[in-house]
Amino acid sequence: MAAIGLRSFLPAEIQAPIIVTFHAPNDPRYQFKDFYERVKAKGFILYPGKLTQVETFRVGCIGCVGPDGMQAAVNAVAEVLREMEVLDI
Q1: By three-state DSSP, how is residue 65 classified?
Q2: How remote is the C-alpha of 57 from its chain's centroid?
Q3: Cα–Cα distance between 25 and 89 in angstroms, integer?
Q4: Is 73 helix (H, G, I), strand (E, B) or coil?
Q5: Rounded to an integer, what distance in angstroms lies between the CA atom of residue 11 and that of residue 33?
Q6: Rounded distance, CA 35 to CA 62, Å?
Q7: Residue 51 and residue 37: Cα distance in Å, rounded?
Q8: Which residues contact 23 (CB under 8 A, 6 or more apart)?
Q9: Which helix (H) or strand (E) element contains residue 84?
């Protein structure tokens, strides 16, 4: 996700292996509901990240998820951000 410009909410040294929280893009074209629906249509489910005052979204990574599955999820997120013309990540 860092490779496509998304920033993790927590530093790597304290990040848990179950769910990862990312800062939402700053671009006004980013709307979580639209983002969620588009990523879901590509076969992946995201979670809203309203646990803090900071706009975030979360990605679950628990279970049998290998490198290929994670890369497919990152690719889906990147494709959706391009489709939405979200530039300010």
Answers
A1: coil
A2: 6
A3: 4
A4: helix
A5: 26
A6: 21
A7: 20
A8: 6, 7, 8, 9, 54, 55, 56
A9: none
Indicate the residue type of 17. Answer: P
43 alpha-carbon distance from chain centroid: 13
Mean per-residue pLDDT over the chain, rounded: 93
First-to-final CA distance of the chain: 11
pLDDT digits (tens, 9 = 90+) for 42-84: 999 999 987 778 899 999 888 888 899 999 999 999 999 999 9
Contact 6, 49 (CB under 8 A): no
Per-residue tokens: 82: 């391009």
CATH code that applies to domain 18-83: 3.90.1150.10
**SS3 of 23, please?**
strand
How far is residue 10's CA from residue 78's CA, in Å, rounded to a whole number?
A: 21
Q: What token pair was written down for 53?
A: 């005052």
pTM of the full structure: 0.89
